[in-house]
């Protein structure tokens, strides 16, 4: 206790030295907490944006070797499975769209069925989406993404307007709400037309791609099994086998991969930050060593008036400990401030995780003690007369 | 109280061995006021370090209250210093960052005296040396004479058996030095055992007994003044 108040007095008595000592630890803790928070924040952002695509969504790619057995009515059979909510085939292409004199070259043509917006969670801004009669009649109707609508018709209400694609004329029946750019890329440049019409125009009959949504995220595994069973039945007449004919992608597996990648990033940043903290620790040792030689005379006086080795040792140790704890806490406080300022700039959510804070401060204290120990033990071994002779 | 017999302390200087103390014997009784005078290089500082338990002799015997201390460990010596010896140095050796009161409390901290008692004793000691009104001052805010008084108070507060002063007036003007010597005399009158080591004959003469050290040997013994 006495050593403690003595250490405090000594720290307060030499503010510049104390500040420099703490600076290393402050920077180290700052580096760890801020870098990990940024890594964590961007990882959460990636995870969040994938989850917003729906983790209960599958995309299936089919590569039939002979005749493609899939038809729309067979997909309806799949949709009837209890674990599955919706099934929608897709067919995509690109090309130039024309409305009067306006040309739109970045459009992404997507032929599908009415179930598709539900699977992707799309909503309409105005008009209607495709309907079953559109599919049955191969109607020349289209639903536009935000960007496509604006590019083609400007501020005009797009509903009821028409545009042409490869010489075919389409009537706009709906405009989608803004989708934003997601990791799958499909954004607001989409032009949705009936699937059956797409097959004909794009001269690509048959279903080679379709999307499936599970009833809810808890039934993803069952849904995946249902899809595989269904495809196995289609491709090998009932016997399980030709799984090379199709691929089933789940968002959850994409998520796993990405989380591994961001996890590695987090570890790397934490490593860099740990090095920063280590350098801070060496800074502490340096300052403590300097302070030992600077304070040799003081040590001599203390020893002459009765301080034992243990007393000197504990005084220096406590000094190092107090400095590193205070430095750690200041570093934590500063990190919180920096993260608060950075958050709107990076537009990802940043927060100090309690675990990281604990580890960073714990580590800084550990380093303070380890690096404080050597100079402290050196100081405590000084012989009083030698220390006193020191000017 | 203190009994030194045939104390030898050697230093090697550039390969040459120098006997800083050559078979020194002396004794100090309780309540004595003794001075040791010698020119620089005479070994008087070495003698002080040994009497003050800051250093151990190469050979010879040192009895403190009948205990042979020459084989004590550093830790035991630290305890003995803390309990038996109060140091007063030429350069005052106060801790510049601490106030007068805190400086005086320091040896009591090492003696593990409780805070209230410590404060009481430190204040009393500062009162005794005439600095009752300067408790909160830092050494840099005090004159040389006052600083040396703080150092004396620090030595007194620990209630040592022996006050060991090394050139206590060396850094002071003669007037302040005289005041200080009067304080030593006063302390001795109240029963303190005092040993002053100096090269100044005027200072040495104020002690009740005076020894002369030359070339590491006690050469003559003066009588009471």
Describe the protein:
The complex is a heterodimer of chains A (391) and B (225). Chain A has 391 residues and is α+β, with helices and mostly antiparallel strands. Chain A folds into two domains: 2-49 and 257-389, no CATH class; 64-244, no CATH class. Chain A is 58% helix and 16% strand. Chain A is built from 13 helices and 13 strands. Chain A has helices at 2-13, 15-51, 72-79, 116-120, 132-137, 146-153, 195-201, 220-236, 251-294, 296-304, 309-346, 354-381, 384-389; strands spanning 57-62, 84-89, 91-94, 97-99, 102-104, 108-112, 124-127, 141-144, 162-165, 168-176, 190-194, 209-214, 246-250. In chain A, strands 3, 4, 5, 6, 7, 8, 9, 10 and 11 form a nine-stranded mixed sheet that branches. In chain A, a hairpin with a 2-residue loop joins strand 4 (97-99) and strand 5. In chain A, helix 1 (2-13) packs across helix 11, helix 2 packs across helix 11 (309-346) and helix 2 packs antiparallel against helix 12 (354-381). The longest helix of chain A is centred in the C-terminal third of the chain and has 44 residues, at 251-294. Chain A is elongated. The mean pLDDT of chain A is 82. Chain B has 225 residues and is of the alpha/beta class. Chain B has seven helices and ten strands. Chain B has a six-stranded mixed sheet with strand order 6-7-8-3-9-10, with helices on both faces. A four-stranded antiparallel sheet of chain B has the order 2-1-4-5, covered by helices on one side. In chain B, strand 1 (2-13) and strand 2 form a beta hairpin. Chain B is globular, with a radius of gyration of 17 Å. The model of chain B has no long low-confidence stretch (mean pLDDT 88). At the A-B interface, helix 1, helix 10, helix 11 and helix 13 of A face helix 2 and helix 3 of B.
In short:
The complex is a heterodimer of chains A (391) and B (225). With 391 residues, chain A is an alpha+beta fold.
